[in-house]
Amino acid sequence: MRKIMMTVLAALAATELMAIQGTISTETDSKTGDIKWQPRAKIYVLTYKKGKTDLQMEFPLADVVSLDIAKPAGYDKAVSMVEGGQGAQAIPVLSKIVSEYRMLKWDKPAGRYLALAYIDANQAQKAYDLCQEIIRENKEAAYSGDLAAAYWQSLLKLGKMNQLEPLLKKAASSGDRPASAAALNLRGDIIVANGNGSPDVYKSALRDGYLRVALMYTDQDCTRERAEGMLKAANCFEKLGQAARAERLRNQAKEL
Fold first, then answer.
1. Any domain includes 37
2. Parent domain of 97
3. Strands of 66-68's sheet in order across
């Protein structure tokens, strides 16, 4: 199965990706048209019209400040499926988005949820292979941005702690607040996974992970991670026999 998955990913990487309508911006210029990523050259090629003539411009990856590209069709519904525990049903749509939007803004958010869908379906190796393919084109995706937390989950599931630990430390020092919050949440997960189910284990997960996120990461960019920390903290409090506190945290997470 792993060999088949890697073959599919390699074929995808070698395939010329389709153009997507959007706006590409550098520090000195901004153009709207059909944008295509060229993986071997690591450049974006933008085709736009001037009168009736099609013109092309090349933008090296290092020069691009932002990409403004509309949300892919079906993305929100697929995300809702993953968050609602129906990840397997979302895999076809998310796979299509990841392949068509490679390096075009939506590959990492969709990749995050596709990886989580695979993990939910007990296919952690597929999640890992998917994340690795995206990270090959953007190494920072391993410790910051949308994809990172899902990648870490695949490493945890596969027992690749030697790879995971350095990434969590890097996330904490990267300046990416959501990634830092996600790293703390995962710290809590690791404590619980490696523990014996005793009260001390849940107290440690709260102190060194979940509650730090709930109390310290109140900025808007960290809303998703804060809600996750609150829900996982609630589970810990429930294990500790503090049902009222657990319910209060769950209600607060819903209001975020």
1. yes
2. 74-164
3. 53-60, 43-50, 30-38, 20-25, 66-68
Dihedral-angle region of residue 74 (phi above 0 means left; psi in -120 to 50 means alpha; beta otherwise): left
Q: Is residue 221 part of a domain?
A: yes
Asked if residue 201 has pLDDT above 90, the reply is yes
Q: Taking a C-beta distance cutoff of 8 angstroms, is the pair 108, 146 a contact?
A: yes
How many Cβ atoms are within 10 Å of 157's Cβ, its own excluded? 17
pLDDT digits over 127-148, tens only? 999 999 999 988 999 999 989 9
Structural domain total, the chain: 3
List of E strands, the chain: 20-25, 30-38, 43-50, 53-60, 66-68
**Same-domain check for residues 99 and 122:** yes
Q: pLDDT (tens digit, 9 = 90+) per residue, 141-183?
A: 999 998 999 999 999 999 999 999 999 999 988 878 999 999 9
87 and 130 part of one domain: yes
C-alpha span between 228 and 249 (Å, rounded) = 11
Question: Can you tell me the distance from the alpha carbon of 116 to that of 246, in angstroms, rounded to the nearest whole number?
Answer: 25
* Domain contains 3: no
Token pair, residue 247, equals: 């319910």
Last residue of a domain, one of 94, 129, 164: 164
- Alpha helices for 26-176 (secondary structure H): 75-83, 87-100, 107-120, 124-137, 148-157, 161-173
* CA 72 – CA 61 distance, rounded (Å): 22
Same domain (yes/no): 186, 219 = yes
Tokens 């953007």 -> residue: 138
The CA distance from 225 to 116, in Å, is: 15
pLDDT, residue 147, reads 93
